[in-house]
Amino acid sequence: MFIRSSNVGYPRIGEKREWKKALESFWNGQINEQQFIKTMEHIRLDSIRKQVEKGIDLIPIGDFSLYDHMLDTAFMFGYIPERFQQIDNALEQYFAMARGTNGQHALEMTKWFNTNYHYIVPEIGQTKPRLVENRPLKEYNLVKETFDLETKPVLLGPITFLLLSKQYERHEWRKHLAQLVPVYVELFKQLSEAGVSFVQIDEPILVQDIDDDIIDAFRHVYDVFHRDVPNINLILQTYFDSVSHYREIVALPVAGIGLDFVHDDGENVKNINIHGFPKDKILVAGIVDGRNVWKSSLVQKAKLLHHLANVAEQLIIQPSCSLLHVPVTTKHEHTLPTELAGALSFADEKLDEIRMLTEYMNGNVTIDQLIKYDEQTNSYLAKFRKQQEQTNDISTVPLSRTPYNERKKAQQAHLQLPLLPTTTIGSFPQTSDVRQARMKWKKGEWNDKQYKSFIKNEIAKWIKIQEQLQLDVLVHGEFERTDMVEFFGEKLQGMACTTNGWVQSYGSRCVRPPIIFSHIAYQQPMTVEETVYAQSLTNKPVKGMLTGPVTILNWSFVRDDISRKHVLMQLALAIREEVLQLEKEGIRIIQVDEPALREGLPLKKEKHASYWKDAVMAFRLATSSVKEETQIHTHMCYSQFEHMMHIIDELDADVISIESSRSHGELVSSFETYEYQKEIGLGVYDIHSPRIPTKEELSEQIERALRVLRPEQFWVNPDCGLKTRKEEETIAALQVMVEAAHEYRERLLAYGGMKSWK
Ligand SMILES: Nc1nc2c(c(=O)[nH]1)N[C@@H](CNc1ccc(C(=O)N[C@@H](CCC(=O)N[C@@H](CCC(=O)N[C@@H](CCC(=O)O)C(=O)O)C(=O)O)C(=O)O)cc1)CN2
Ligand code: MET
Ligand SMILES: [Zn+2]
């Protein structure tokens, strides 16, 4: 059997984030549309060229995007919400949907499965879909002309697309699907006529717990595709876990089935062993981890491949998912310890692994070569394994606090906050001044003292601004942090940070997830100096600002040979140390952010309970050792929180702020059925859009929340941190927010006073 190599998707951002720079220059008006399109084409073709050079047989196209692939799909099929329809220029319209404009709010953004990638949630409405533009075809032709190369168009499948979209009645989803299927058929026909042979159609929804109706829809849709475009070889692609209905899925009339053999807990292989794999289909095997950065053990992978080659008649080897979730290349990492760098494999190096495994299976590479490849990684990982496996004794660390009602009184006596207190989520604008200052310091042009004094000036400036705005609980602004996770990664022992390991998070925004390589240990105070300095400038309370253990874990690359729970508890203990340091230095409100709490939830329900148990325990471990008068806050964003009120409750934070404005009333309505007792701020405006909200809108948001929450438990705050906004936008928006809160506060007081509620 001849075995081929393939890729599922390649990072969009370019080796040095050229993509991000082009987008932002275009948005800022520094380059025009033509220059922008040219630059983007260049980045795309460069990625294709690289994959050609790496010897990948099936190179994906259409995986590239100017913002996000869900948005692309919606756009391509004409799902343009009414409020954007009068925009003539297509590109302008596209970005308006993604980012909003002064008059139009953006589409919602949420997490892509259990990753830190965010997609734009299409609004289906009453739109009848049509093929506005065959993007994959255009791309296919361009690449064919440029490189004389056959490629594999990648599309999001109609079922996943619809199920992840919103603004339609769920019971009518089959009607919308029926409208969409012929549009896909038309698209496939055009591809087929142009000479396309393989098409990858992503249906990751198949790894979730789906019901019979969805399975039935799969049967129907793929029958139609098979009937109407028999010449196209469809690869039905799944990733992030095992498929839930293995037998039904491998029976679908497609050419190949793409399975994830890395994040499936062994279930996909188990199913193959029990039920076999159809002789007439290609097994498209996701072998190399597309979501983590460690070199593969090629010997182990080879064993698995031999097994799969025995079961299937045809085999393709590829990463477990799109390489969108890992950095581009290790080539530009010069500051990591050599040994660690030698154990890492980013997108480009993963493709080399794919190639090597394929060559091995085809008899062109020997097992000795694989053994040699593995030696270095193994010796490195083994060295730290012992250290990381050390356990900390947590039996004496408190996991609960004084009962809520008691500590609430102590906190109120101490803090004396007004009704509907106003606050922000932590970060203030990371302006180019701030980033340049940090760059100068990192390059050694500035010494520590210069950099520190710059940061202190920023803090002082923003304490003043917050006082002028009359916010009630202030923050220091997080100017010293590149990123809320990376910052702690730099300070904690056992974690390493890259210089160029960027991964797209949403739109043009990227993160460099730190790498947890060894035992996590607290070394010294990380946030005390800045927080205490900020507090020294004001009589209002300043919130200490930390990132929680679950979020640090989920937003880092973690070793895959040590239990995640083990690492989580090490992180929790380290954050606990910092909480106690802040408290000792007189900080009375401490926020421990957990925006990634929901994101890390496994895709399969059977794994939920144990995830929640560990996550709650870690948060409580980190936050339960404080005195009763110390107020613990937490913050969450970018996820669907509707069904997790009980978990939020169990965290036992005194105050939680949750993002809610983009999803409008959906979160609020969960309080109709769940009686939440503690304090809560439902974000009153979207911080992703440059647009300044009006007072009326904000009052409406407050009013809506107060229909289900008691006034004395409600806080007024934005959706999330303000680091991506401009200074003037931030101040203008906060001013409106505070005014709206004050007006509401007065109305409530005039109405009967707080007494009746207390
Ligand atoms: N890890 C993580 N995940 C998260 C979030 C988060 O905050 N962190 N928030 C949610 C949404 N995601 C976000 C992800 C990234 C950014 C973001 O602002 N990223 C920045 C990069 C931040 C950063 O680390 N910057 C560095 C590097 C700066 C840099 O690019 N320097 C320039 C020079 C400076 C300049 O002129 O800008 C250069 O090297 O060329 C710094 O501050 O020091 C970006 O893409 O622009 C925001 C939200 C969910 N997931
Ligand atoms: C993604 S959650 C962000 C929380 C953090 N404290 C900030 O304000 O940026
Ligand atoms: Zn947030």
Automatic annotation (TrEMBL):
Pathway(s) this gene product operates in, as recorded in its UniProt entry: Amino-acid biosynthesis; L-methionine biosynthesis via de novo pathway; L-methionine from L-homocysteine (MetE route): step 1/1
Catalytic activity line of the entry: 5-methyltetrahydropteroyltri-L-glutamate + L-homocysteine = tetrahydropteroyltri-L-glutamate + L-methionine
Q: Which residues bind L-homocysteine?
A: I425, G426, S427, E478, D593
Binding, L-methionine: I425, G426, S427, E478, D593
**Cofactor binding, per record:** Binds 1 zinc ion per subunit. Binds 2 Zn(2+) ions per subunit.
| Record GO terms (molecular function) | 5-methyltetrahydropteroyltriglutamate-homocysteine S-methyltransferase activity; zinc ion binding
**Active site per the UniProt annotation:** H688 (proton donor)
* Annotated Cobalamin-independent methionine synthase MetE C-terminal/archaeal domain residues: 420-742
Q: Where does 5-methyltetrahydropteroyltri-L-glutamate bind?
A: R17, E18, W19, K20, K111, N116, R509, C510, W555, E599
Q: What's a single GO BP term from this record?
A: methylation
- Enzyme Commission number(s): 2.1.1.14
Residues annotated as domain Cobalamin-independent methionine synthase MetE N-terminal: 5-311
Keywords attached to this Swiss-Prot or TrEMBL record, sorted alphabetically, are: Amino-acid biosynthesis, Metal-binding, Methionine biosynthesis, Methyltransferase, Repeat, Transferase, Zinc
Q: Does the keyword Transcription apply?
A: no
Task: Enumerate the cofactors the protein uses.
Answer: Zn(2+)
Record-annotated residues binding Zn(2+)?
Answer: H635, C637, E659, C720
- Family affiliation: Belongs to the vitamin-B12 independent methionine synthase family.
What this protein is reported to do is described as:
Catalyzes the transfer of a methyl group from 5-methyltetrahydrofolate to homocysteine resulting in methionine formation.
Q: Which HAMAP family match?
A: Meth_synth
NCBIfam families noted in UniProt: met_syn_B12ind, PRK05222.1
Protein name (record): 5-methyltetrahydropteroyltriglutamate--homocysteine methyltransferase
Q: Which organism is it from?
A: Anoxybacillus thermarum
